[in-house]
Write a structure and sequence with these properties.
heterotrimer, A alpha/beta (289), B mainly alpha (116), C mainly alpha (139), B: 116 residues, mainly alpha, 4 helices, C: 139 residues, 5 helices, 77% helix
């Protein structure tokens, strides 16, 4: 999407990479540490100095947490020289790590929006740092880890539970019929049924942005996992449809979704978990007792 | 392993939608009737409630309304009350209140219908 | 390091702070309309109770009904009724949007935002229309 299309005063968002220029509310009107456990409360951190000779400078407020110290998490402010740094938020983080504070810790790999490593919360919404332009961030960019995760260090969250939920839906081809001599065939039309679902990079932006998963993440599977569950339900080669639907029975696993649709709004790959879940619910109806 | 009844998921979800669909004409009718009767006196109201069509619609409205309310509040309680015993007690109490209010409402409407 | 740190409920995880969620997540049309639909639903549950009270007052006779009627006609009563009307229309329009989603239509981001703003606008228009009509009937 071009810079012009991304900047928008329009109220009707067409694509998730659009960042509204005008926001009525930056956060819900709740106390800053609402419902937060004592060891998760965020303290004010330090402001790091501006490097000499920097002309175009931008402030970044970054969530820091050191597991080797007894202190609570804090927000550190860094000033990035935009003329010395690439255009993306990930470039800014790497610049900070190289030039200012080598202890800043974050996940990254491909730097092109395909590996899903650098997913984090930027200015209140979850996205990949490598595909978010610095120009699209607020005056002082706020960099937090993905919402509602146990934090290992700084911006690195513990995704063990999320991957355990992923494993629970058995994300592989399950068949009963004997293996054919060659591939299990499907027509192009059948193959198109998994378009928009197989492309998921498991960055978990959607799941960690889902309020239902915030409150019931131990039981509700979450949009990323349910999108993959639908990917296997929609695949014509998979023969365990009934078993897969059975595994999603109950109040929370699938029906913890109340169609809030933060997931579709935030997917950095433009996928649609909300729609996948609606398709799954429709298939469940055909399968009900 | 899923020990719960399948009704907990798909059944509940479907019932919530069914009662919602039933409520659309019933509530629109009721709100329109209230607006149309703005400023009417007590006698006119009672005469209106005594009409058979109105009485039947009110009974249906009460049943569908409290059924939908019980289902909807049930979802809200299950989302926010995590301790299982607290949750069970709250759910039972809420359902009893909804049932009681339905009964009270239906009896009242029938009482108006068949009195005097 | 911790051998146990890879299980979700290990001692290490209980010591780890949790990143903020609702405290910092940006309110978007998606989440705001969803919570408004829920809040309006809960408000309407209270109104359902009010409906039964109103019916009982009507059955109890003109004196009892006059008390309830005065309450509704007071400024506080009318303010509550106005909020209740708005909640009713928000929940009605929001629920229609939900029912359309249940048929697996309207999930493109553009459709989500368009339908969302339509729900908000329609609710305001319907609320004002209801009250204007009521005032006109009373005149």
């Amino acid at each position: 999407m071009s810079r012009q299309e991304r900047e928008t005063f329009v109220m009707i968002i067409r694509s998730p990479e659009q960042v509204p220029r005008f926001t009525m509310l930056k956060r819900f009107p709740l106390p800053r540490n609402f419902g937060v456990s004592r060891n998760s409360r965020i303290a004010r951190g330090r402001a790091w100095p501006v490097l000499a000779g920097a002309v175009r400078v931008k402030a970044f407020d970054v969530y820091r947490y050191d597991p080797d110290s007894p202190e609570n998490p804090r927000i550190d402010t860094y000033h990035v020289d935009l003329d010395d740094c690439g255009p993306m938020v990930l470039d800014a983080l790497i610049w900070i790590k190289n030039k200012i504070d080598p202890t800043l810790t974050f996940r990254r790999s491909c730097r092109e929006g395909i590996c899903g490593s650098c997913s984090m919360n930027i200015d209140g919404t979850n996205w990949l740092a490598c595909t978010r332009f610095i120009d699209d961030t607020d005056n002082t960019a706020m960099i937090y880890p993905l919402a509602n995760m146990p934090i290992i260090k700084d911006l690195v969250g513990d995704q063990t539970h999320l991957f355990a939920q992923y494993a629970a839906i058995k994300p592989w081809l399950r068949t009963n019929t004997p293996e054919p001599a060659r591939e299990r065939l499907q027509s192009p039309q059948q193959r198109s049924k998994i378009d928009g679902y197989y492309e998921c990079i498991l960055c978990f932006c959607c799941t960690s942005g889902c309020p239902s998963h915030w409150w019931n993440g131990d039981r509700f599977l979450g949009p990323a996992v349910l999108l993959q569950a639908w990917r296997w339900l929609a695949d014509s080669r998979d023969e365990a449809t009934a078993e897969r639907l059975d595994d999603m029975r109950g109040t929370f696993r699938l029906y913890g979704c109340h169609t809030i649709l933060n997931c579709t709004r935030t997917c950095p790959k433009g996928l649609n978990p909300g729609k996948a879940i609606a398709e799954t619910k429709r298939m469940m109806l055909e399968h009900r007792d | 392993m899923n020990h719960g009844s399948v009704r907990k998921g798909a059944g509940n979800w479907l019932l919530e939608r069914a009662t919602a669909i039933a409520l659309i004409p019933l509530t629109v009718w009721f709100v329109a009737a209230l607006i149309a009767h703005t400023g009417s006196d007590y006698a006119a109201l009672i005469a209106w409630l005594r009409k058979p069509f109105v009485a039947i619609s009110m009974v249906l409205l009460l049943i569908a309304l409290f059924w939908h309310t019980a289902l909807g509040l049930g979802v809200v309680i299950k989302d926010y009350v995590h301790a299982i015993n607290q949750r069970t007690v709250t759910l039972i109490a809420m359902r009893l209140v909804c049932f009681g209010l339905t009964a009270a409402g239906v009896v009242t409407v029938l009482g108006i219908l068949f009195s005097g | 390091m911790d051998q146990d740190s890879t299980t979700p409920y290990s001692p290490a995880n209980r010591l780890r702070p949790r990143s903020p969620n609702i405290q910092i997540y940006r309110p978007q049309l998606t989440s705001v309309l969803s919570i408004v639909n829920r809040i309006s639903g809960v408000l309407l549950s209270v109104c359902a109770l009010g409906l039964v009270i109103w019916l009982i007052a009507a059955a109890a006779g003109p004196q009892a009904y006059a008390v309830v009627r005065e309450g509704i006609a007071s400024w506080a009563g009318r303010a509550v009724l106005f909020v209740a009307t708005f909640a009713f229309f928000m929940h009605l329009c929001g629920s229609l949007r939900h029912l359309i989603w249940d048929t697996v239509h309207g999930f493109s981001l553009r459709a989500i935002y368009l339908s969302g703003w339509i729900v908000f606008a329609a609710s305001m228009v319907l609320t004002v229309a209801a009250w204007v009509t009521s005032a006109w009937i009373r005149r």
